[in-house]
């Protein structure tokens, strides 16, 4: 019933005669995003002849307002883009950076032990220099068609007139009552009587509207200097808990980076994804590369063999991730070795089709140089994803985040600040060895975000996909792609299918779904099975004969719209 409601609600927002949603075929352009307001804003830009980058920017500004628990201009973003004119894929890195005050031991207590993860999140210490505005401006300068200022207008109008609080946003507020201790959370998300906002209530944010006007007129410079930057610094340095040391110089020196993507083959397909400082693209490509030798029939969606085999490949990929992945500007990351087909075949031989392998050890890929110690970083679920294709066939797969729910639980100028620095390993060394993802000034914390674009045997664009979900992003994206490429699932079926995951620990099955019935059989195969909620947010666009179809994860509030 809720899925029908989302489709109908979206239809009220735009002209019904030309709206297509969910599995309907569209011919010209499509956007799938995590909230109907955001999908509508992106569709508006596509109808004006805008590029996929234009649509993504408009949607992101709206997500800052309507999905502030997950992403926004106070956080960071990875943009993966396919340019059909040059037939190339590129990526834009807008990951947050650590301020100059950051030190390797910044998350250790007085005794030198790692602090409890949740204790370090609220306040200023966890806030990285936001990268969202810088990376979107960089992408727009190269691939935008519409004027920058116009992309902000849907979000500005919505912030002024108000929007209806979504089911997801209301649930997040209700399920994290400890956040009410933070003044900005209490002021913005709670009533005067102490009760939290409820689904369907109208919420306005005139302060954010004014901030977006300033950025619309002044570009990224207006965010990284002047009153907005000063407000960020003041909030971080005078946080009610965990004060941080970010300065105006940290903001002024931030730079987004265009990077080559990581690409690889899977059967007859070519896949490209985000490279370091994200671990996501490498891990997704490793998982699929290790499974390529198994017949598609053994990877049938929701089958016992699929859950077992994929979970084993996930174990191996997560073991390598923990040891080798981090900021490529700060450490050596052996990307080519980790994706070498011979290395993946060697790792694949460790998969027993009948028994769980237990905890996997990292491998020794070609070109590995530094003997890093495996990290233990409990990265938390959060984030948002959108996928877009425009009239010219340009494709954007974009994952964006403020890290945990409502980030650092602090606001500046109407938007929430991230807690991205807690994505660093709290232990800078282990057993006398350095940890690849240890904090350091100017460094970008490792991410799991995995925006991915798939090309068919004909070399043409086929799928744009991605998801939120902390480290489980890797498993959600890999399993969705396996479901579509091996199991012929539609985007909507892939987004909605039950989840499982194995980040080199227990095998996690999404509880209260059909897949949890596999627990006894998996246990008999040696798996340590746990049942848990798995909060994905897959948003997928697929090219099919005659146009495009999309899918939006029913675990969130989003929708795919197009013409």
Number of strands: 23
Radius of gyration: 22 Å
Indicate the proportion of strand residues.
15-25%
The backbone outline, from C-alpha atoms, is: globular
Please give the count of helices. Answer: 17
**In percent, how helical is the residue content?**
25-40%
Distance between the termini: 25 Å
Give a quick account of the main beta sheet: strands, pairing sense, barrel closure. 8 strands, antiparallel
Structural class: alpha+beta
Number of domains: 2
Unreliable residue runs: 1-22
What would the average pLDDT be, to the nearest integer?
Answer: 93
Q: Strand order across the biggest sheet?
A: 1-23-2-10-11-3-4-7
What would a concise description of this structure say?
With 563 residues, this protein is of the alpha+beta class. It is 32% helix and 17% strand. Strands 1-23-2-10-11-3-4-7 form an 8-stranded antiparallel beta sheet. The chain has a 6-stranded antiparallel beta sheet with strand order 8-9-16-17-21-22. Strands 18-19-20 form a 3-stranded mixed beta sheet.
Architecture overview:
The chain is α+β, with helices and mostly antiparallel strands and 563 residues long. The protein has 2 domains: 33-256 and 385-430, no CATH class; 259-379 and 446-547, Gamma-glutamyltranspeptidase, large (L) subunit, C-terminal domain (Serum Albumin, Chain A, Domain 1), CATH 1.10.246.130. It is built from 17 helices and 23 strands. The chain has an 8-stranded antiparallel β-sheet. It has a 6-stranded antiparallel β-sheet with strand order 8-9-16-17-21-22. Strand 3 and strand 4 form a beta hairpin. Helix 3 runs antiparallel to helix 4 (132-143), helix 11 (280-291) packs across helix 12 (304-324) and helix 11 (280-291) packs across helix 15 (473-485). The longest helix is centred in the middle third of the chain and has 21 residues, at 304-324. The protein is globular and about 60 Å long. The model is unreliable at 1-22 (pLDDT under 50).
